[in-house]
């Protein structure tokens, strides 16, 4: 995860660490030239708080944190604070203005998702998917389409994924999954009618759970084997539509599929092409 995005989320920070992170985020360029004494004075915290924050961010000291901030600052700034993720369009706008508003919203969402999606977490999730005897994905409402797309992508490389839509079938999936399965649960804020009971039951039985949810803390985090974070910028209810969340879910599931794909790239590509040729031969597609 981008270290500046991690500071913005501030999960597990003390009040002093939160104050220090806010000072860094307010002026990252100044941070790059500040020593620990200057930084502590600006945030009105102790020097020990500076080093505790470095440790919490996985850095051995201030110099290492500066290097990380410098390398990730441009990516962090690609998120525009001027874009309202909840209301990217307004009453009375023209078609041209709507197009620009949606474009800016989705561009920000892609940047934000890239900043919070942890490469190590993606590695872990892909390994769980590749090694499981059964792969299941649970989603509700607008996320169902993205779950079905992931199922389709995996089928094209010879991997069967269960993605039930019916509530009873979803509950049956949760009841029947065991340690040989991996379950991917898509729930932005962990508020779905099935999400928490399902996550709790799966965790209790030791079923690996890949949680695709907001980068902010959710009620499901404690049950996850690994979490793949979504852009947290949208409110769960007060918005025009989940424009950004949908794109963020698609980004994360595409990244998970692609990470699995590249582990056996040539074989997966050959398999996909062979399937397509067989479909063409059977008259199912018109070909090129």
Write the layout of secondary structure elements.
Elements: H1 3-9, H2 15-26, H3 28-31, H4 36-43, H5 47-56, H6 62-77, H7 95-116, H8 119-131, E1 134-138, H9 144-155, E2 161-162, H10 167-176, E3 181-186, H11 195-204, E4 209-214, E5 226-230, H12 243-262, H13 265-281
Parallel strand pairs: 1-2, 1-3, 3-4, 4-5
Structure write-up:
56% of the residues lie in helices and 8% in strands. The protein is an alpha/beta fold. The protein folds into two domains: 3-77, Winged helix-like DNA-binding domain superfamily/Winged helix DNA-binding domain (Arc Repressor Mutant, subunit A); 116-272, Rossmann fold, CATH 3.40.50.10490. Strands 2-1-3-4-5 form a five-stranded parallel sheet, sandwiched between helices. Strand 3 (181-186), helix 11 (195-204) and strand 4 form a beta-alpha-beta unit. Helix 2 packs across helix 4 and helix 9 runs parallel beside helix 12. The longest helix is centred in the middle third of the chain and has 22 residues, at 95-116. It is globular, with a radius of gyration of 22 Å.
Compact summary:
The chain has 288 residues and is α/β, with parallel strands linked by helices.
Compute the separation of the termini in Å.
41 Å
- Number of separate strands: 5
Parts with pLDDT < 50 across at least 5 consecutive residues: none
Helical percentage? 55-70%
Main beta sheet strand tally, sense and closure: 5 strands, parallel
Q: Which outline best applies?
A: globular
CATH topology of the largest domain: Rossmann fold
CATH architecture of the largest domain: 3-Layer(aba) Sandwich
Q: Could you state the CATH homologous superfamily of the largest domain?
A: Glucose-6-phosphate isomerase like protein, domain 1
Number of helices: 13
Q: Look at the structure and give the CATH class of the largest domain.
A: Alpha Beta
Q: From the alpha-carbon coordinates, what is the Rg to the nearest angstrom?
A: 22 Å
Provide the residue-averaged pLDDT: 94
> Which class do the helix and strand fractions yield?
alpha/beta
Domain count, please report it: 2
Arrangement of strands in the largest sheet: 2-1-3-4-5
Helix and strand string, N-terminal first? HHHHHHHHEHEHEHEEHH
As an assembly, this protein is single chain
């Amino acid at each position: 995860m981008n270290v500046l995005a991690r500071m913005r989320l501030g999960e597990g920070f003390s009040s002093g660490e939160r104050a220090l992170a806010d000072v860094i985020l307010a002026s990252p360029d100044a941070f790059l030239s500040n020593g620990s004494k200057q930084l502590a004075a600006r945030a009105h915290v102790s020097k020990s708080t500076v080093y505790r924050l470095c440790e919490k961010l996985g850095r051995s000291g201030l110099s290492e944190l500066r290097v990380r901030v410098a390398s990730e600052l441009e990516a962090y700034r690609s998120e525009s604070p001027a874009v309202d993720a909840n209301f990217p369009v307004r009453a009375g706008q023209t078609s041209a203005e709507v197009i620009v508003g949606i474009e800016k919203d989705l561009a920000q969402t892609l940047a934000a998702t890239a900043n919070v999606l942890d490469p190590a977490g993606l590695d872990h999730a892909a390994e769980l998917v590749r090694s499981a005897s059964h792969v299941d994905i649970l989603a509700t409402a607008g996320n169902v389409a993205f779950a079905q797309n992931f199922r389709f992508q995996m089928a094209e490389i010879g991997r069967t994924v269960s993605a039930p839509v019916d509530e009873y079938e979803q509950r049956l999936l949760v009841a029947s999954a065991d340690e040989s399965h991996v379950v991917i649960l898509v729930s932005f804020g962990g508020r779905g009618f099935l999400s928490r009971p399902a996550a709790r039951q799966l965790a209790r039985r030791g079923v690996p759970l890949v949680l695709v949810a907001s980068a902010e803390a959710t009620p499901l985090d404690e049950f996850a084997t690994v979490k793949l974070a979504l852009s947290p910028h949208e409110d769960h209810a007060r918005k025009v539509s989940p424009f950004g969340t949908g794109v963020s879910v698609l980004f994360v599931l595409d990244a998970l599929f692609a990470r699995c794909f590249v582990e056996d790239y040539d074989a997966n590509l050959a398999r996909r092409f062979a399937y397509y040729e067989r479909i063409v031969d059977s008259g199912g597609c018109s070909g090129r």
